[in-house]
């Protein structure tokens, strides 16, 4: 297993003079595919996400970004939850049932982002597990919050992802992971479209539920 990890990290392709390992290339392409699948509310979202986590764990661990590495482990666990939740909350026409978060849920999301980032950044710094603990922590905590909201079918999960991308792009560039930074830029554009798509679907489903009452 170690030999495989060393090979996928040590080999790859060169683009514009920048080396991109196979682990980073394939891992980020799988992560990109997840955004397309999530927009369509298909269960295939989750197994593809699992594939991405394995490769990207190796990438971020080697870049001394402990938060992003541990993030992959948490994504794996949350993906299992999301898979289960989407199976239970499916809609025969529109896929997973989606809705806007309530006022209380939005406060919880915001509080979790702020408090979670502060606590995890301090932990990363204490353990010397990351060269950039605060942005590393923001991305880690934002990912957990986004996946939790996604699993519950909340439209606002797209906005959390946008906040993660805003920090992720400069952090990836500073880490020399230029391909990952480019993928994060694409993520941001797709996230905006995904938010629009889910928001429209939520309105349709809310109208259908109201008509059924």
- Helical content (DSSP H or I, runs of 4+): over 70%
Low-pLDDT ranges: none
| Secondary-structure element string | HEEHHHEEHHHH
- Helix segment tally: 8
- Biggest sheet: strand arrangement: 1-2
Largest sheet: 2 strands, antiparallel
Strand content: 5-15%
Q: Could you give the distance between the termini?
A: 56 Å
Tell me the structural class.
Answer: mainly alpha
Radius of gyration: 18 Å
Estimate the global geometry from the Cα principal axes: globular
Counted beta strands: 4
On the 0 to 100 scale, the average pLDDT is: 85
Helix and strand arrangement:
Layout: H1 2-10, E1 12-15, E2 18-21, H2 22-39, H3 45-62, H4 66-88, E3 90-91, E4 95-96, H5 103-127, H6 133-151, H7 157-174, H8 178-212
Antiparallel strand pairs: 1-2, 3-4
């Amino acid at each position: 297993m170690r030999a495989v990890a060393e090979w996928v990290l040590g080999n790859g392709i060169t683009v514009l003079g920048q080396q991109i390992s196979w682990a980073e290339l394939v891992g980020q392409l799988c992560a990109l595919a997840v955004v397309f699948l999530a927009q369509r509310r298909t269960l295939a979202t989750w197994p593809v996400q699992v594939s991405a986590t394995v490769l990207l764990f190796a990438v971020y661990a080697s870049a001394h970004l402990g938060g992003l590495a541990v993030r992959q482990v948490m994504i794996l666990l949350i993906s299992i939850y999301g898979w289960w939740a989407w199976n239970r909350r499916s809609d025969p026409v529109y896929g997973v049932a989606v809705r806007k978060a309530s006022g209380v849920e939005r406060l919880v999301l915001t509080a979790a982002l702020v408090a979670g980032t502060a606590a995890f950044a301090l932990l990363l710094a204490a353990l010397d597990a990351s060269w950039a603990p605060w942005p590393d922590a923001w991305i880690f905590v934002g990912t957990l919050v986004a996946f939790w909201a996604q699993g519950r079918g909340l439209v606002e999960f797209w906005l959390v992802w946008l906040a993660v991308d805003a920090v992720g792009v400069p952090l990836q560039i500073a880490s020399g992971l230029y391909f990952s930074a480019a993928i994060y830029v694409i993520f941001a554009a797709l996230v905006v479209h995904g938010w629009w798509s889910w928001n429209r679907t939520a309105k349709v489903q809310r109208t259908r539920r109201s008509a059924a009452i």
